[in-house]
Design a protein that fits this description.
By secondary structure, the chain is mainly alpha-helical. Among the domains are: 187 residues; 55 residues, no CATH class. It is built from 38 helices and no strands. It starts with a helix and ends in a 10-residue tail after the last helix. 22% of the residues are buried.
Length: 858
């Protein structure tokens, strides 16, 4: 019989020299076999020596693989057969021996993992924790370098039997292993989610609640991640550990003594390792299929939701469990757009203000609504919601919850709302309670965006788009193209390659003057007359080819004016000379006086007047002199255009400006992309549009992959189209002032941003989770009488001088009065008795009255 110390010494020697201590090992091996036979006779007996020998054999088994080939199977069989009756200490020792051999890769994983999952049935908390930690770490180590799909598939298939085990503790521990592997980003596939979902039909309510918490918890993690993305980098920087700075690295190697340097270097290594670990976790939780929420990965969500609702409607569960099941079923219905029509009447019986956690029930109701649910199925639920929550006798908090819930319902299914009901609910916009009025106005605002025709005329707002209507039930619009790709095609066809052309230009640049509006108006007329030549000049000015294009246009127009004026009368020659002089002055860039500008504006008039005069002259109503005058006026107009256009072209075509550099860079990128596409597809340009590099009728998304830059530009183009529509609705013209244009542009941009945000929200509203707190208003809590009295007294502090005069008179500031002194004066007993008699007699007289003559005696 060897002691523990002797076994440890022999173990150390065997590891150093296995061949030299083989005889001692064989002696201990025969001792182990003898103890094993004795143990089998009475397994429940505490055998401390047997446990020590087993652990010794596990430690040295790697040195003698042939002799110890069946050792692991013997220990596993012993645990599998007698795990319920074994002593707890010996059982943990045997499990530790198997874990040691598994960590050394002496035992296959699928040999011991089924046994470990069966050992979860033992009523031993320490053993269950030991097994749980080993299983998780073992599977994580197996998938550290690369995914071990063979092992993962085998273990996950076996987990179906584990989570369906009749023993509640074993099933719950198996479920804990699965959720922990999901949380650590080791198993992030659909197979894991479906194994977890199968545990929802376990007979134990605790296992069911654990599954529901898993699905709800993954929703919270997804929302936390989206909030961090929306909130910017501040939250992300706080969550991610900061790496060492240059000063820290320098101090660790160049400052202090040798001992302090070693401490700093160790601390530096720990910080660097912590940052690397955080980066590995972040990369493991990155994009791809692994970033989906667990609900998205269900194989058959319709069958899962129906079975889960069947268990919910069967009853027998606690209210907390039912509430969690409601939330999960509603999320599955909303995300996958399922039809479980019996779910809405089931929730209807919980819709009451006095119901416990009614806001969570209403949140589940809202999540389960989508556009494919028949309005007839939702109409009774909406009616009960309005009848129970929105009426004059209800508390303001209850009314706020009801109105907000109605708004969320109609955003997901607009067809459920009726015109009469909407009119009644809109009347609460002037309710005395602010939160109720705000909720009613938010409902009105929602219908302004989805169906303004149902609102009263006074509630539609200014410039309501009456064409907005929800689609009929079952009317699905199948997208044949990428949303907004036609805007990108139009921008490329017009030659707008940079981001400058994606913004609305109202002539608000500092380089342009207030008179540019008139020039812009004349430019439209001249483009109609000029035709293709003007379009080419505009394209040249957009491409930023310098000042020569603009100045040459002015010179050509002025020469035309001189040729037209040749051969005319002297009076007409004077008018032409005046116009030519003005043109030369504009060409040289000399400043003109205010009188000259006013004269030019008076001569020019408006575009509409010019059109009208030209039409009259073409009809023959005027004489030849009038025709000559109109030609001269046209020449003067062209001269004015020539004076103003080069200024804008010069401002836009500065070679050193950022806009010019951006434009040139975008053009170079577009040319390089077109050349690359032409090389890849030699026949692409044949039969295509001029300059498009694409066959006619072929969409741009069918020709090439759209990059992130393309999608960003599509977003900008959508914004621009909405801004232009808003400006056209507001009636902003070129004759408006700069301030008016600026205000209109800001309002249009804000309206376009809100419209895009609403469109994005309505697109993904079915997948968004509804929080119960969002359905409640911010009402002040009512105080009881004691709290109100304390508040009143607190407000009176320091305001004694503003009190009533009577209270000030009663308050004594000096000594006692004479009457009080007489009362307190010490009197003889006889005098005191006489005073009491007089007082009593006076009291009796008051009770009897004035006309009392005494009692009548007969």
């Amino acid at each position: 019989m060897s002691t523990a110390a002797e076994l440890l010494a022999l173990q150390s020697n065997i590891k150093k020299d296995p061949d030299g201590y083989k005889d001692e090992f064989l002696l201990q091996y025969r001792h182990y076999q003898a103890l094993l036979e004795i143990f089998k006779l009475k397994p429940s007996k505490d055998s401390r020596e047997f446990g020590e020998v087993v652990m010794f054999m596990a430690q040295v088994s790697r040195a003698y693989p042939k002799t110890m080939a069946g050792f692991a199977a013997e220990v596993a069989g012993l645990l599998d057969t007698h795990h319920q009756e074994l002593d707890s200490t010996l059982r943990r020792t045997l499990v530790g021996a198997l874990i040691l051999m598994r960590n050394r890769a002496q035992v296959d994983a699928m040999t011991v993992l089924p046994l470990f999952f069966r050992l979860f049935r033992c009523q031993d908390k320490a053993l269950r924790q030991q097994l749980f930690r080993h299983i998780v770490s073992d599977l994580k180590a197996a998938n550290k370098k690369s995914r071990n799909e063979r092992l993962n598939r085998a273990v996950q298939n076996f987990m179906y039997t584990v989570v369906s085990d009749e023993n509640e503790a074993a099933a719950k521990r198996g479920l804990s292993v699965l959720t922990e592997m999901w949380r650590r980003h080791v198993w992030r596939d659909a197979r894991t989610v479906n194994v977890i979902s199968s545990a929802a039909f376990h007979k134990s309510p605790r296992v069911l609640l654990a599954v529901m918490k898993f699905f709800l918890g993954q929703d919270r993690e997804e929302e936390d991640g989206s909030d961090k993305e929306d909130g910017g980098g501040d939250d992300d920087e706080d969550a991610r550990p900061k790496g060492p700075s240059k000063e820290d690295v320098y101090a660790a190697y160049h400052k202090g003594t040798s001992s302090s340097k070693k401490k700093k270097q160790k601390k530096l290594k720990r910080v660097i390792e912590k940052v690397k670990k955080a980066d590995r976790r972040k990369s493991a939780a990155g994009g791809g299929a692994e970033s989906f929420a667990a609900i998205h990965l269900l194989h058959d969500p319709q069958a899962f939701a129906e079975r889960l609702f069947g268990r919910l409607s069967g009853g027998g569960e606690r209210f907390e469990t039912r509430l969690a099941v409601m939330a999960v079923v509603s999320r599955i219905i909303g995300v996958h757009k399922l039809l479980v029509l019996n779910f809405y009447p089931y929730l209807q019986k919980y819709i009451a203000p006095h119901q416990r956690d009614v806001t969570q029930v209403l949140a589940a109701l809202v999540q389960a609504v989508h556009d494919l649910v028949p309005p007839e199925s939702l109409a009774p639920v909406l009616r009960q919601l309005v009848d129970q929550f929105v009426h004059d006798k209800a508390r303001p908090e209850v009314m706020t919850v009801g109105l907000k819930t109605v708004r969320e319902l109609v955003l997901r299914c607009p067809l459920v709302m009726e015109a009469d009901l909407l009119t009644d609910l809109s009347q609460y916009k002037k309710f005395r309670e602010k939160q109720v009025a705000t909720a009613a106005r938010s409902l009105i605002g929602a219908f302004r965006d989805i169906n303004p025709e149902m609102l009263a005329k006074k509630d539609r707002g200014r410039g309501a788009d009456m064409a907005l209507k929800p689609r009929d039930y079952g009317d699905a619009r199948v997208a044949t193209r990428v949303d907004g790709a036609e805007l990108l095609e139009a921008a490329l066809a017009e030659g707008r390659t940079g981001s400058d052309g994606d913004e609305v230009d109202l002539g608000l640049d500092d380089t342009s003057s207030d008179d540019d509006d008139d020039g812009a108006g004349w430019q439209e007329v001249s483009e109609e007359e000029g035709g293709e030549g003007e379009e080419e000049s505009d394209l040249e000015s957009l491409s930023g080819e310098g000042e020569e294009g603009g100045s040459s246009d002015w010179e050509d127009v002025s020469e035309e004016g001189e040729e037209e004026a040749a051969g005319k009368g002297k009076g007409k020659g004077k008018a032409k000379a005046k116009a030519a002089a003005a043109g030369r002055k504009g060409k040289k860039g000399a400043p003109a006086s205010d009188d000259d500008e006013e004269a030019e504006e008076g001569e020019s008039g408006s575009d509409a007047d010019l059109d009208g005069e030209n039409e009259d002259e073409q009809d023959g109503s005027g004489s030849e002199d009038q025709e000559e005058e109109s030609e001269e006026e046209d020449g003067g107009r062209r001269g004015k255009k020539g004076k103003r256009e080069p200024a804008r072209a010069k401002a836009e075509a500065k070679p050193d400006s950022i806009a010019s550099l951006k434009r040139k860079l975008a053009e170079a990128k577009e040319k390089a992309a077109s050349v690359k596409r032409a090389r890849e597809e030699p026949g692409a340009e044949e039969g295509g549009e001029a300059g498009a590099g694409r066959p006619a009728g072929v969409p741009i998304e069918a020709e090439r992959f759209l990059t992130q830059e393309d999608f960003d530009r599509i977003k900008r183009l959508k914004q621009k189209s909405l801004v232009e529509a808003a400006l056209a609705k507001a009636g902003v013209t070129s004759a408006a002032s700069k301030a008016k244009k600026q205000r209109a542009l800001e309002a249009a941009e804000e309206e376009a941003t809100e419209a895009l945000a609403l469109q994005e929200r309505l697109t993904s509203i079915g997948e968004s989770k509804v929080h119960a707190a969002d359905l409640m208003g911010k009402h002040k809590a009512r105080k009881d009488k004691e709290a109100r009295l304390a508040s009143v007294l607190e407000g009176r502090e320091g305001r004694e001088k503003f009190g009533a005069r009577s209270s000030l008179k009663k308050k004594k500031t000096a000594g006692l009065s004479e009457r009080e002194k007489q009362r307190r004066k010490a009197m003889p007993m006889a005098a005191r008795v006489q005073q009491i008699r007089r007082r009593n007699a006076a009291a009796r007289g008051k009770k009897m009255g004035k006309n009392f003559k005494g009692h009548v005696r007969g």
